[in-house]
Amino acid sequence: MNRRNFIKSGAALTALAFFYPEKILGGAKVMAAENLKWWQKSIVYQIYPKSFQDTTGSGTGDLNGITQHLDYLKKLGVGAIWLTPIYPSPQVDNGYDISDYTAINPDFGTMKDFEKLVAEADKRGIKIVMDLVFNHSSDKHEWFLESKKNRTNPKADWYIWKDAKPDGSAPTNWRCFFGGGVWTWCEERQQYYMHTFAKEQPDLNWENPEVRQALFDAAKFWLDKGVGGFRIDAIPYIKKPAYVDGTPDGKDGMVAVHKMTVNTPGILDFLHEFKDKVFAGHDIFTVGEANGVSPEELKYWIGEQGVFDMIFEFSHVLLPLKNGEVFCRPTEWKLTELKQAISESQAATKNNGWYPMYFENHDRPRSPNYFFKKDADKVKAAKALATILLTMRGTPFIYEGQELGMTNIDWDSIEMYNDIGSHTQFDFALNEGFTVAQAMDFIKFFSRDNARTPMQWNDKTNAGFSSGKTWLPVNDNFKTLNAAAEEKNSDSVLNWYRKLAKFRAENIELTHGDYKLILPSSEEIFAFSRSVDGKTLITAVNFTSENVALPLELSNKKIVLSSEENADKNSLKPLEARIYK
Ligand code: GLC
Description:
This protein is α/β, with parallel strands linked by helices.
């Protein structure tokens, strides 16, 4: 499936970034090191604070727990930390339902703890990046509590309210991401309100200038606290189209909301206002979670004339999932498709923009499980992906625990799962006629809880994450898979990450070099070069669990790094990753 179809299927997304200054030297194009922004040369580490480190015994991670591990992150070469939402929240969607945009969730600590985190991180050259969730708030936010009272209060128009159809039914047949329709009836107002996600996450009305200003003020509040950037959540949904029914795509007679509302014309006006009033002139970076932006549209979204520095695109991470259906399930995919997805994003951002490279985040399963066959060696698989991540053009994003090669959980009952999306997907699959066992298999494969279990620091109680009852169970494999054990093992995933991070910092090809795909039609090897100023590095990764012979164009090159001891110049060992000069 090419990128266009991918986008049409509603699955896609796209990436990137910043105007990339270059100069011409001796006829060859040379990217000038001094012209890269700090965040283009940084590694970003994403923290899910709830699961990182608990310092109080509450069973939930906290800000002081993050501060405690700053030296660990420094050693990993991290230059910025993206915190998933740390604001007060009823936690229906684990913080993506915010009830106060300018305060700290007391479960995570205090504003003082936050200020200390920023200051301590700063001492180590690390910036803190906040997650802005501006498409919707929590239904417990005081704005919504007021808005729902009646049709005449000062915030009556801050959310999206509509009358029922003449027969009393909901205004449209759009299905929300987290179960049922996007419309929920409100007794007080005798009207429906709209929610793209759960009913506890009402959509804000961006058409109202007061709403926009309130959101911009919230972002500015965090800029004043010295944050180094923003990740902007679910941004392509803020502009709503005409409220008309769509062609049903499921047995429930509804159509997925994103098919109707993504990137509605006019959205860029809102976004430019956001940029002008909030980001412009600050030495920060912005990365939008912007599903469905095509390569052709990218120039309006990123770079100098666009809005953000980068946008997260999903084309490569959605490959293992069958899309365009009401629910998700695993599907066959080819290595050439993965290479194509990443290469298209590279091409689209070659001259304008910057690419945020990632394989994991809090919405995706663990990558060694997700991108490889069930019986593949997970340590080798983790190192293989690490090598692509840290040698690709763009800013690498590491998700907590990825640097340890943390793997999926294997919970048999849906009751064990906390993630609202997993419950929704489970119900969808049953409604569409799948058995409980089949639905459970799907959930095990892609549940967001796979990535949300507590960090595995050591082999002690609760993996050293907490002395209390943890909010989500620790993965059973923590006795052997943990940071303390990996620290001591020179061959661990953690030490491979550190080695690659150091190598990246020392080799200008990896920050500044052009990207070129090598062996494009191979279904076994992912290889690409990074070149600048006449210097070239080549990455080659074997995605199979067999030995794979190398073509001459690689076997005659000098190996500078390999994930395997005694690398053979004529072949790659199973899942081997190496770098050539
Ligand atoms: C984004 C977040 C996801 C959340 C959703 C609703 O996709 O990454 O975790 O559930 O938005 O805010």
